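Input.
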Amino acid sequence: MTVLVDPKTQARWFKKLREAHQTETTEDYVELIADLIAAQGEARLVDIAARLGIAHATANKVLLRLRKEGYVDSQPYRSVFLTDKGADLARSCKTRHEVIVGFLLKLGVSRKTAETDAEGIEHHVSAETLEIFRRFIGE
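Output.
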């Protein structure tokens, strides 16, 4: 027989998960934009779409939303730049990603799998768990 936690606790868990899903796209975009700028000196719509495996129109729609929310700045037919708010979020995401990859590698997971798994875990890990991961890897 399966024993369930009380409904309020379970509802809280699912609410947290839904909130994490809402921020995933923003986090993926700002982290990718920061990586592209660091590697190539610029982040272009064509590169963003290609690296996310989506249509240009889809990437453009998300970038318009991110601009309205204050994460990016862009001009038509020009590169995309992070605002201070976007750069702060990108740094936070990158750090979280690196800690999770480090943790998975320390457990013996291959680099390829660790990088792939970190893409999903990084959006859902709590600050408490992330801190334990940090201590585990010796940061």
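The chain is about 75% helix and 5% strand.
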